[in-house]
Design goal:
heterodimer; A: 211 residues; mainly alpha; 10 helices; 0% strand; B: 328 residues; alpha+beta; 16-stranded mixed β-sheet; 3-stranded mixed β-sheet; 6 helices; 21 strands
Chain lengths: 211, 328
Amino acid sequence: MEPPRVQPGMTGDQQLIRDMLAGDERAFEAFFNAYFARVYRFALPRLNGDVEAARDVVQTTLGKAMRGLAGFRGESGLFTWICRICRNEVVEYLRARKRGGHVVLMDDHASLRAAVESIEAPEEFDLVKSYGRDEATRLVRVVLDRLPANYGDALEWKYFEGDSVESIGKRLGIGTVAAQSLLARARLAFREGLEAVFGAEAVDIASSLGA
Amino acid sequence: MNDQDLERLLKSAGRREVPPAEVERAVRERLHGEWQAMLRENRHRRSRRGAFALAASLVAAAFGLWIASTQSVGPQAAVGTLAVAAGEVRERSGWFSGWRVMGGGDVVVAGRTLETGVDGRAAIALSGGMSLRVDRDTRIALIDPSRLRLERGALYLDSGSGQARTAQLLVETPTGSVRHVGTQYELRLLDAGVQLRVREGRVEFRSPTGLVEHGQSGEQLVIFGDGRVQRGAAPRAGPTWDWVAEATPDLDLEGMSLTRFVAWAGRELGIAVTFAPAISEAELASVIVHGSTSGLTPTEALRAVFATTSFEATIVGDRIVVDRRAPI
């Protein structure tokens, strides 16, 4: 299925919102494919790995986001905005079921959150260093999720599945040249995201993880 | 970092978790259903607006000559603009003319009578920065830009903050007239008189017999036709003001600081804004928000706008408390 085309002067998010509100099925699919898995991964660890709870919270979050799309012109990216809705929904879910002790993740701390969110909306941030290995690898995956839609997928297809550029282009419904360009941007964004979160050169991060 | 470094780093971190297929399927189906329902609702709303517009056009066409023949010729002063028209809102220019359905953005003209239906609410942006809210099942006669008559139901006047307070509006009722002195107040017609609730500032009530009463912030006055006056306390916020919040005009947030936005919300809700000790007003002033509060009450707008920032605003009793968002 060919993805919706972006009109000049509009961001991909703006075009997606416009097309969804106009009833374009492809836009609904694009919205769901771009955000479902990322929001699920955002919610799950905050709900102590409870899959059923994550399903309910993600359902509610995406529903609220969808209904609020018409008024969305926030200062942050669409995914950042959806994550904030999700945070509130997690709190509401736990409160409604009187479950205390929800999980505090490193990327929920204000300073690190600012760095993670800066991947979508660049701004000044404090350096955050010295994590344990498990947390560091988890944060690498968080960075992948925080990249603009499709970048994380494209990098995983390329480096885990060994997909060719042509194949990635087909999966994304774009040409080979566009896929090549998208991969280049994805690598750059990923490297910058890592450096923003860890406050170190990407090469050093790779070394410290034993990569 | 070269391609090999990148590959090693990604593999070292491992693949991102893939949501279970049954969860994805269930969420997709439910969300798709919600989306379809939302589109149907939007279409229905649009067609309803179209029907209202068509009805208004037909009414205007059918009664055009008759209305023209019953009205005095000459320019009529604009009183303001209809900022909110929820449910049924209509106007007529004389006893012998028909009602015309009104919509948001319509100019409100002196010499006409405006009425809301049992499901209707309206807000009129008056000249001088004043905001007039009209409750359901209410009728007001717009005499001129500085004078109106409440014939049925209830209205709320916000004379604006700061310099906008200079504008004046006299509201007449069968029991007497009300003049504000920089204020937010509600005036409701009762069978035997009027009820006046003052949210901010001061109002002056003057009856045809010379009775003069003043109402202060947080005070409620019931003034009977026979001159009796009952005074009591009126909370400045709470459910009795909900209808006012529901008729709040959209606020254009584009380029507005978070400080100004929260001050607006506080004023609309009739409550004070306080900042947690770790927050400075200057810090909040540096946060610029975008968009509009279209379709949201002030409470909903507060939640929606703050959700896009790293601050949170919580309504605690009669205050909005602004704090840094706590990590989950």
